[in-house]
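User: Hello! I'm new to structural biology and keep hearing that structure can be predicted from sequence alone. Could you demonstrate with Transglutaminase-like domain-containing protein? Please show me the input and the output so I can see what each looks like.

Assistant: Of course. The first part below is the input, the amino acid sequence of Transglutaminase-like domain-containing protein. The second part is the output, the predicted structure written as tokens.
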Amino acid sequence: MDQTYLQTYLRQTPYSDPGALDVRALPRDPGRLAGLVRDLIIHRGEGERFGWTVPRDRLHHDAETRYVTGILRLLAERGAAPLTEPRPPAERFVGTCRDFALLHCALLRATGTPARVRCGFATYFEDGCFADHWVTEFRTPRGTWRLADTQLHHTYTGLDFDPVDVPRDRFLVAADAWRACRSGRADPRRFGVIGLDGISGLWFVGADLLRDLAALNGVELLPWDMWGPGAADDSALDAAHLALLDTVAAARSEAELRELYAREARLTVPEVITSYTTHTGVREVTLRSAPRV
């Protein structure tokens, strides 16, 4: 990979920027940082696993926090302990897989490891399902990219892989999922949000493909954000839409993906997007400045 792109993934985005956070006491090892994040965030569907009832206001609103500065602000309000100390559930941020990935990515960048957020599908939550999921991808000293699922770190037992080295066949980045579905190697009806009827299908794989492309270009959106060529069901996937997404999934280099994102207005995230928020309904959202990178 060109060194220019490595520098890109060391830079914070408007979403990952931790602001004035003092990172001197933080570990630099990706695994230790993953453990730290796992002790700062609780998934909003995990309260029962931890013997804790998630307050309704946190269940509805924490996960609408788009920016790491907002996550850190809520953590500071809920407890005075440094980020390096584990917290009880009541003092944590209540988020989604995207929040685990984004905070991990932010801390990796802040401590000198190139990293990016990836959007795709996990096979390890429910047999036979490809669950909508977000993870971190970081650059190793050997020059390879490795997937890390911070949500799993040190609280999930019985895994047959290291959560800081997720096999590529256990988590499919969105482009791999799109190609598998379009070629007939996978059934798109198996790709979606576990437990929510109707939130699956080729349209949903395409939406994840767009969000993954945006994240690679420095716009790490919420899992329910859409814009431009987004489709809400398979019937909206016309020939032009399919061709555009096929082109994105076929890109094989950083340069090609960035050129596509910069050239094709239908792919570039605009200043105002539509957020299909899970608890507060559909609304228009104006994003912070998100320059192309």
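User: So the tokens describe the shape?

Assistant: Right, they're a compact way of writing down the 3D structure. Reading them back into a model, for example: The mean pLDDT is 93.
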